[in-house]
Amino acid sequence: MTRIKVYGGQKLNGTIPISGAKNSVLPLAVASILSPEGLKLNNVPPLVDVNTMLDLLESLGAEYDRKSESPYADVVELRTRSVKNPKASYEIVKKMRASILVLGPLLARFGECEVSLPGGCAIGVRPVDLHLKGLEALGAKIELRDGYIRAVAPKGLKGTEFRFATPTVTGTENIMMAAALADGVTVLRNVAREPEIVDLANGLNKMGAKISGQGTDVIVAEGVTSLRAAEHRVLPDRIEAGTYAAAAGITGGRVDLAGENLPELLSSFREKMEEAGLKFTPFKDGLRVEGSGEIAPLKVDTAPYPGFPTDLQAQTMALLCYAKGRSVITENIWENRFMHAAELMRMGADIAVSGARACINGGKQLRGASVMATDLRASVSLVLAALAAEGDTLVDRVYHLDRGYCRLEEKLAACGVTVERVK
Ligand code: EPU
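A: This is the predicted complex of the input protein with EPU.
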């Protein structure tokens, strides 16, 4: 089994090109189902989750060409004219929960589909009830049988008003994609406002959809009868950028993050990191992050965008292990997203977890240890903590990392930091 070996006591100093956002490219690739005309995506990050999504689309009958634009970005041209089998099987869906995104587009294009229920995962139960309620509001009939969601809309989808009980990212994306081809106007309230949703809506509008309000809590989709071919560039990955910013803070180093709009994309994270003592300086198409070597403790509450992102919570916990004093993190999105705490404690961190709250008594020197990654963001938080630890750390189950971090070792190596894969 491959593990990652992190040498302790290193400092980042260099430039990191930020790849396209994983959570943007996944729904954008799925949006190709909505039109038989084809969709070209630029700045596609070469990630395992992207491969899984392309496998899923291929299993439905889609075709694609993929070329490398740079070591950190691909161009993918998707063609879904040949999609004939609107069934997403458990074999693929179980690998990646974002597969649920095919539900709305398949139903909108074919009037029927079958998608495996994704099941839970390491960070929480992760229900999809709001995806189903949203589609029912659009006129779908839904049945759950044998672990599958069977959805039909024999008379097509009809514009409607629907309010999400809680903002959901992929739920908003699913219903927004279905509504793009519904008959009439759909008003979606209490939607999620993440930049990845804005990116998807912008991509859909290039395909001829009539969507407005993206980025606010009300999205309006004026249904159209068909969508056309389009080309779209995926926005930079704010979570990847935030991860390397935390790495600069932990190691007292400096990193230039190259990517458009990063200061805006990272605003709530940046505010907290500034409170912790990190310095941010925007430059043209990028953001410089400098750690001072002194980290102040923080109170952090995760929340839907524009709040503090849950996907940067684990990395922030790693940073706060090195803060002078007591920090408190409250995780408000996922009920089981503190698995990294126990692993950080194996490295000597002093963390007490109680329900949704974690208290971190920072300032202890962490020591290298063998640790285990439990999910994507947990795995990278262990790498970050290990960079400033005394001695070397071996991180097991690194396949989690490859789902969402593009060429992590190379990007760190460009900043003078050695992280190796070992068998
Ligand atoms: N929820 C429901 N019912 C639903 C859907 C969601 O109760 O039908 C609840 C969830 O249980 C959770 C909250 O709503 O408490 C928010 O979940 P959301 O649906 O927004 O999460 P998601 O769409 O499944 C996306 C990202 C996650 C990220 C969350 C929150 C993608 C592909 N995934 O998941 O990313 O943590 O939003 O921001 O966009 C990651 O990249 O590491 C990752 C886990």
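The longest strand covers residues 63-70. The chain has two domains: 3-18+236-422, 22-233.
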